[in-house]
From TrEMBL, chains A, B:
Keywords: FAD, Flavoprotein, Oxidoreductase. It holds the Pfam family FAD_binding_4. SUPFAM superfamilies: FAD-binding/transporter-associated domain-like (SSF56176), FAD-linked oxidases, C-terminal domain (SSF55103). InterPro entries: FAD-bd_oxidored_4_C, FAD-bd_PCMH, FAD-bd_PCMH-like_sf, FAD-bd_PCMH_sub1, FAD-bd_PCMH_sub2, FAD-linked_Oxase-like_C, FAD-linked_OxidoTrans_Type4, Oxid_FAD_bind_N. Residues 42-220 form the FAD-binding PCMH-type domain. It comes from Pectinatus brassicae. GO terms for molecular function: (S)-2-hydroxy-acid oxidase activity; FAD binding. Its EC number is 1.1.3.15. Its cofactor is FAD. This is Glycolate oxidase. It is an enzyme of class 1 (oxidoreductase).
Length: 467, 467
């Protein structure tokens, strides 16, 4: 067992020599927020929080941490769901939210260079104002781009545009020993040695600290239309997705949602959803440069939905109508959370042709386990979010039922050739399930890679593949 | 220095126990082709060539090789340009070209599962027949998909669609010790531990042997138009590209070409290029689902080209006209090769806004070094192919001038924040230039990763980052 140095007054003094004291939180200056992420059951306080403002500061800090064998937990906005940004070994929490500058919009290369603390919503506003799109679109808009890169976040537009990984052209990172390294750049192609950049993306702060990112942008589509399609049952809604994909129409997003979750969102937001006639809905979005182009897609998709049993078709071609629907969609996580005492989640991804199997299994498991499971997600890319709710269960009952339910859900995902996480990551909470879903040899490779990048295991210990 | 076992009659006997003798080439059964790739100056014969037909065979072979410390060089069609598929340490050459089956077209998940020996041209035909597009489009259509994945091949459509990496959803690989491993799958998103799949992609057969690939497909665009634009000079042609990118039109491809190279292609193909009025050309392609959609793009681009000094605009909206142009483009490498006695290449990639700097430097270097350098490439994604020609130089002069020219070209690329290889890889020939272009620490990380995957260094030794 690796033991880490806990910080004392000497460390505070030493670190204050290269980091301004007013950007160091120490002892009771450390807010409760820093002891958990969005979903942690347990609190873990770091000994110190450092709010860095530059790559050089982070380099010095990592050098100090490696010399003194101090655990360092990088953290963006703390919106994660799997404990990746929780300081299990105390030590230093490295908060990058003050590094939130837009460094360069390069319109000749279609790249945007940013610091890691820029929030997703700020990024979206910035590029749209300049006529560009940064396609990854996770529900949590107050996450940082650094956090999004660290989990390879996906979001709703993955059906058409892919995930965060597909939009990171270059990174500047600081390694565990303080080395500053640039990976990739503004270049469109690269076959120059092993792909260290993609190894960092999705590594949840365990291999290096992201201090700068060069993102790929697309021209902003001029028009978009959303289509809300009510179905009698969720099974019918989800079964309509493979024929849509097969039809060669290319929706930007295909989300599924159930009445119960929509009702939670109505209550949470204090506003009505535009439709209430059905138990289940598909919500589709189409983008393009002209209404004719988009219409050719959604006409075809509308036909397919009706053939598959859709009750109605609601076209949201004004900003207001579309916003009221997508706002509800965006509030699902918070709405479900506020409907119960405690919850945990699975974020599995399965081949998109098999989403209905998984959803039917969830329904069956609810009765079998006598527990509420709320579910919504990305029907178009096979990534489901299922939330298991504690409600009035005792802590003891909850632990037992939760573990059993989790085991069953992940085991079902494996049987469908799915993976543990589509976009939330592994962090601390899903380590055991990752272990069960990949081979022992794959874990050995991951641990070997961890050791290459961070031989002292000081960067975000006990996460992803580490004991 | 690692020493490898050379194969003897006992090895032949042992390997024949699990590989059919008629798929083993031994001694003088080994064709000269297997001693080099498309551009090697020196011959290196393997002791044995194994033409594998299954993952299980490859697993057994790697197990045998690791037990006996035999070097193994994986090889597809041998069309590489940097020596990655050359058996420097003799040993076993593992030829995967007989593993050339289409395993599954999954239209609900838009994936195609193939064996590694499928040729790029076969793949293109197959998916187009079913109404799909596999976007990566390298010039060398007789390369295997396994080779393409191993170099992260790019090609002409990268401007719009990206590179091979972006279209590999899953891999089955055999590790150096014979372990069979599946990475990724049909899933669209994945945040389940470190990204081993992307580590294999572009690793040029040094980390694992690819035995199966799940590729992502797109619906085939219904229409396409090519635009050939003559310019008075290459500099003017290339300077038109950044304004095109900035205009938010999205061409599928933007290639540049010079009269001299076109003349080589005319001679090589024995047919005339459709235009001969200019010293330099841009060749653009636009794809879409209707002519209206495409016209809106190329009208804008045509205006920009004229503003930037284009002499004329030639629209190829029939298959015949387009084919005659793209056929010439496809023959450039062979045509240049046949115009000289020997050549070597650089495949640098620079930010696309800086391509003109690099091309101007090449022109200057030609006079400075008194050597012919032919150049063409992907103006839209910053990836240039420059060929340095030996012509009538003596071997001694050639070695000297080639080395000096190479040093200068790579040094220029570095100064433009470029990378050593956009799509051809590092292999054996570009190792030294990779070393000069990345930090020592990056090389240490790469070598560490190599050791994790292949601790005995038997897989394709002396390539990419290894001594």
């Amino acid at each position: 067992m690796n033991t880490y140095k806990r910080l004392d007054q000497d460390d505070l003094k030493n670190i204050t020599a290269f980091i301004n004291r007013d950007r160091i939180l120490w002892d009771n200056e450390i807010n409760e927020e820093y002891s958990h992420d969005e979903l942690s059951a347990k609190q873990h306080y770091p000994d110190m929080v450092v709010r860095a403002v530059s790559t050089e500061e982070i380099s010095k800090l990592m050098h100090y941490a490696s010399e003194n064998h101090i655990a360092v937990t990088p953290r963006g906005a703390g919106t994660g769901l799997v404990g990746a940004s929780v300081a299990i070994e105390h030590g230093i929490m490295l908060d990058t939210t003050l590094m939130n500058h837009f460094i360069e919009l390069d319109e000749q290369n279609l790249t945007l260079t940013v610091e890691p603390g820029v929030l997703l919503m700020e990024l979206a506003d910035y590029v749209e104002k300049h006529g560009y799109l940064y396609p990854p679109d996770p529900g949590e808009k107050s996450a940082t781009i650094g956090g999004n890169i660290s989990t390879n976040a996906g979001g709703m537009r993955a059906v058409k545009f892919g995930v965060t990984r597909d939009y990171v052209r270059g990174l500047e990172v600081v390694l565990a020993d303080g080395t500053i390294m640039t990976l990739g750049g503004k270049v469109v192609k690269n076959s120059s040695g092993y792909d260290l950049k993609d190894m960092i993306i999705g590594s949840e702060g365990t291999l290096a600290i992201i201090t700068k990112a060069v993102l790929k942008l697309l021209p902003l589509p001029k028009k978009s239309v959303s289509l809300l399609v009510p179905f009698p049952t969720l099974a019918e809604a989800i079964r309509a997705v493979p024929p849509i994909i097969k039809s060669k129409a290319v929706p930007t997003a295909i989300e599924f949602m159930e009445r119960e979750v929509i009702m939670d969102a109505e209550e949470y937001l204090g506003r009505k959803f535009p439709d209430n006639q059905a138990d289940a809905y598909l919500l589709l979005k189409f983008d393009g440069n002209s209404m004719e182009e988009i219409a050719s897609y959604y006409d075809k998709v509308a036909q397919i939905c009706l053939q598959q049993g859709a009750i109605d078709l609601l076209i949201a071609d004004t900003d207001e109508r579309a916003e009221s629907i997508w706002k509800a969609r965006g509030a699902f996580l918070e709405a479900i959370k506020s409907s119960t005492t405690m919850m945990d989640e699975v974020d599995v991804v399965v081949p998109r042709s098999l989403v209905h199997n998984f959803v039917e299994y969830i329904h069956q498991l609810q009765s079998e386990m006598q527990i509420r499971i709320k579910c919504f997600g990305h029907a178009g890319d096979g990534n489901l979010h299922a939330y298991i709710l504690k409600d009035q269960l005792s802590d003891e009952q909850w632990d037992k039922i939760l573990n059993l339910t989790m085991d069953k859900l992940y085991s079902k995902a494996r049987s469908l050739n799915g993976n543990v996480s589509g976009e939330h990551g592994i962090g601390y909470a899903k380590k055991e399930y990752l272990r069960n879903s990949v081979s022992d040899k794959a874990v050995v490779l991951m641990q070997g890679i961890k050791k290459v990048f961070d031989p002292l295991d000081i960067l975000n210990p006990h996460k992803v593949c580490q004991e």
